[in-house]
Structures are given as C-alpha cells and as structure tokens.
Amino acid sequence: MPVEPTPIPRHHPLLTEFRRAFKSGPPLVAIEGPRLIGEAIRSGFRVERALFSRTGLEHHGDKLLPQFSKHTTAAVADDGPFAAAMDAEHPQGVAALVRFTPAALAEAFGKEGAVPLLLAAAEMQDPGNLGTLIRAADAFGATGFVALADTVSPFNPKALRASAGSIFHLPVVAKVTAAELIAACRARNVALLATAARASGNDPNEALSGLDRPVCIVIGQEGAGVPRELLRAAGRTIAIPMQRSIESLNAGAAGAILLYEAARQRR
Amino acid sequence: MPVEPTPIPRHHPLLTEFRRAFKSGPPLVAIEGPRLIGEAIRSGFRVERALFSRTGLEHHGDKLLPQFSKHTTAAVADDGPFAAAMDAEHPQGVAALVRFTPAALAEAFGKEGAVPLLLAAAEMQDPGNLGTLIRAADAFGATGFVALADTVSPFNPKALRASAGSIFHLPVVAKVTAAELIAACRARNVALLATAARASGNDPNEALSGLDRPVCIVIGQEGAGVPRELLRAAGRTIAIPMQRSIESLNAGAAGAILLYEAARQRR
Lengths: 267, 267
Description:
The structure is a homodimer. The first copy, chain A, is α/β, with parallel strands linked by helices. Chain A has helices at 13-24, 34-42, 54-64, 79-85, 127-139, 157-163, 178-187, 228-233, 251-266; strands at residues 6-7, 28-32, 46-53, 73-77, 94-99, 117-122, 144-148, 172-176, 191-195, 215-220, 236-238. At the A-B interface, helix 5 and helix 9 of A face helix 5 and helix 9 of B.
C-alpha cells in the first residue's frame, strides 16, 4: 500500500514535471484518467508518480491507490492547479508518470514463430488517428506498430488517449527512418506493402490478397499518401476496394480495415 | 459567371449569418474550404452565399468563382473578421452557405431494387467519428446513413469536414427516433443489427455473416454501446472478431470495418 497522497501547493515542481512530461514523452510518459492508468499497471508498467485533483481523489482514490506499488509517489493538488498541469481539455482528476521504454524495431516483427504483421504510419499528423491505429493493431493481433520518423509521436497525450491503453499491449516503435524499416523488412523477408487510395485496376477480390503472409503495411497521411522512398521500396501497392470512388478514407479507418482483413485471412 | 465578390466591412451581417449557420445547420448549411465547396457544387447543391477572406480570394477565387451560378452572392472580408466568423481553427479562406434538405428516412433504404445497407449511429457524440462513418458509408455503397435523435448532428461543421464531402453523396437522415427506425426496418423486412464489443461465443468466421442481406447496422458510442431500446428490437447482435480482447475499437473504425465487410460479402 502506498502512503496517503501528499497535498501539494499551487506552484509545486511536480505540477511542472507533469506539464513537461505531456510534451516530452519517454522515458517518462504522462498519462491521464483512471482507465489508462489502470491499463498501464495491468500491463506491468511502473507508475513513478501519481497526481490526483481533490475531486479526482474522492472519485478514483479508493480504486487506484491500492494498485500502486511502494515505489509510487502519490500527491494531491487543488482542482485548478491540477487542471492547469494537464493536457486534456476535460481532465479526469488523476494522472500518472509511467516509465516506458519504446520497443526496438526488431520486436515489432513478433516473437519466434509469429507471422509478422506490422502497421507502419508515415507522415501522419493526427494523433487521434495514430491512437486509433494502435488500438486496431492491438485488436487484430499485429506483431508491432511503427511510427516513422516524420509521424506525430505515439506518446503524444492525444495519441495515448485514443489508443485507449493499447500502447501498453504491443511493441510500438517510434522515430524509425524509412531506410531502417526497408532494411529490417528485407532482412526478414517481410513484404512491404504501400497503401494507396486507388488500386491499379485490380480485381476487388484480389486487391487485398496475401495479407496472411509476413507483411508490413505502410499507411500514409490522407491525401499525401505514402512517401516516395517507401513507395519505391514496396513490393506491392494495395488499395481497399470501394463501391463509390471517394478521394480516400479516414487514415484511422483505412488502417483498421486492413488489419481486420489481415486477421480475417489469418484465421 | 457571378459578379466579382463584394468587399464587406468588419461588422457586416453576412459574417453573423455565417457564424450562426455553423451552429444551426439545415436548411442552410455552412461549409468551409475549397474541397468541400467544390464537392457540394459537383453534387448539385446550390451555393446561396460564398465568403472569401482576402487571402482566400487570391488562392481560390480563380478556381471557385466560375463554378458559382448567378444565384450565388459572393463577398470578401479581411482575413481577421473572416476567421472570426469561421468554425475551423485554421480556416482555409473560403466558406459557403449551401441549401441542404436532409433526406427522409425512406430514402436511406435505397432506390427500387437496391439491397438496403444502412448505418445508424446511436448516442454518438464525437463529430469527427460521425463524419468518418459517413465517408465510409459513401465509400462502401451504403444506401443511407441515419443519425439517431441523441447523436451529434451530421451537419455540425466538424462532422462535415470529417465527411470530406460524402455528406453530399448519399441520403443522410438526422434526428430519427429509435422507434421510427425500428418501425421503418420492420415495414421493409430489413434486419436490424446491433453492434457490441464482444460476440456471444460466435465462431469468428460466422460473426459477421449475412451482411449481404438487407440490413441496418446500429453502432453506438464506445463504452456505452447501443441503447437498450434498439438492442431489444435488434434481430441480432454482431461483434467484430478480434485477436486480442480490447474494450472496444474506435467507433469510426468499427463502423468502417462493418461497412467494408458488408461490401465484401455483396461483391
């Protein structure tokens, strides 16, 4: 059992530490809300510091406090200063600093014997979409998720919220260059697939075939699509068959469909 | 060809009219950005008023002005007052008021001979997710989209942006009560399917079977799920089979997967 949370005043350095952690990311990642914190603990991550608002302590203290280890420092601040240290517009009364080491690229290819299924995001700027993709990668059994170098950080607080805890479930690799990803796929005989808005005259029944093989699906920002370097290196361009030709699907929705289809073919 | 846009001062009533239209919705819907406006015109909707910022007129005037009919009143305001009348955080320099009559519920079942495929959103509060669903409904050939009474308006500016113009392509019905939807489906022998986070012990290969028949898929807010009245009336509860058990997918992603799967089965 941790000690009772220590009350801290309005200008305490811990508030600054949280404000900074929301911007900086690993090795200390700031997460908000009882669900995300619970998910981190259940997944074996170590909560270094917990911060409650007065109201948040009343609501979530009984449930959360017993889950912290003796290494967790818990504090409580007044609602106003607490909210000012948070990223969310409507904070949920509790936040935590979690020690988090991003995965190495090799881990994203899965454990020995797994058929690699990677989703790689290129030049994606919307953290909500990125979090949605990480959540879908988790749901559909992807072996790993790769955020390429020019993509918004998966440890961005909005991406973490949208991932709904899935960030703690599968290897998530950040700041990977296109060259590194291409080399890693080649070394392991994993097919690099680039997604496009339109298939090049494919039979719709064939458009997404072969996702049961070892694959790394690269998805780009809507509109701009997959960057040229990756397009050139890709073994194949795939497109989701559509009934009506629209410019593109939302990137989060498109990635979720591709992962669903891969899982379907792998059953 | 419309006349040259009329310069308007800082406190012109047209600015107020736009500000209000972003909040109120049909019959006059305010839309922003050259793409969305172009999509409305191509889809046969009538632009009543167009408003440019000075900078926006330089960028988009040559392309957009010739597309307006003689019924369009075009105006130009300074960048500051223009931005203040917009909804988007980063407005794109042009907006329009479009006359838009929401579809009647009957239209969402498709034209004579079509196999109805409806997506109905229940208690969904995120306009971005709603727009993503409308875009997916368009892409995968749904006959219509229904926003149930307690769902955010599909004519909300954020939903319109996320729909990327798809709102102009298929019948979108708003403010439908659960009772109305249930009755309309029964009258047409359209199966009402409620989505849930988890299937009730189904074989994953059977979990989503039968989407090639006339169906109305009801999707709820993440977490809360489909409201009880609709759950009770539903002929069947469906769930997307997942590899790892997560609480739920993002609602936009889940709806897009169900529509993709329906389109796949209908090929």
